Amino acid sequence: MKVVYLYDGTPYITELNGEGEYNYPNEAWTETPPTEGIYEPFYFNGNEWIGSTKEEWESNKLPYEPTVIQMQLAQTQMQMTKTVAQLQKAQQDLANCVLEGTKKDERIKKLEEQQAEAMLEISKLKGEL
């Protein structure tokens, strides 16, 4: 197995056939890999790779403009994110309220027990007099 490159830079893996020879692509190809640091569009001219520099590539790049559907999808995703954050905050607030209610119930129960004990002590004291 070995890699060759089509003239547009696409790598192509060749494999040995039953006769021990490589099956090369039908298109024009080279064993020379594309030169490091070249930018698209690039091609092999038969002798060397021809391509753009980073500066040329960046100057030819058009600014990206999303479609209407992409904009609507992004807005929907942002709204969903806000809604999820609000829901999480509401769930946390509810959990805090339940916890606070439980603490208050425990304090009331303790006060009722203390009141019952005090009433019992008062009853004992009245019986002794």
Would you write up a description of this structure?
There is one protein chain. With 129 residues, the protein is an alpha+beta fold. The protein has 2 helices and 5 strands. It has helices spanning 54-60, 68-128, and strands spanning 2-6, 11-14, 29-30, 39-44, 49-52. The strands form 2 sheets. A 3-stranded antiparallel beta sheet has the order 2-1-3, with no helix packed on it. The chain has a two-stranded antiparallel ribbon with strand order 4-5. Strand 4 (39-44) and strand 5 (49-52) form a beta hairpin. The chain starts with a strand and ends with a helix. The model has no long low-confidence stretch (mean pLDDT 91).
Can you summarize this structure?
With 129 residues, this protein is of the alpha+beta class.
Shape: elongated
Instruction: Give the overall pLDDT as a whole number.
Output: 91
Structural class, from secondary structure content?
Answer: alpha+beta
Percentage of residues assigned to helices = 40-55%
- How much of the polypeptide forms β-strand, as a percent range? 15-25%
State the order of secondary-structure elements, H for helix, E for strand: EEEEEHH
Uncertain runs: none
User: Can you count the beta strands?
Assistant: 5
The termini sit apart by 110 Å
Number of helices: 2
Most strands sheet: 3 strands, antiparallel
Cα-atom Rg, whole angstroms?
39 Å
Strand arrangement in the largest pleated sheet: 2-1-3
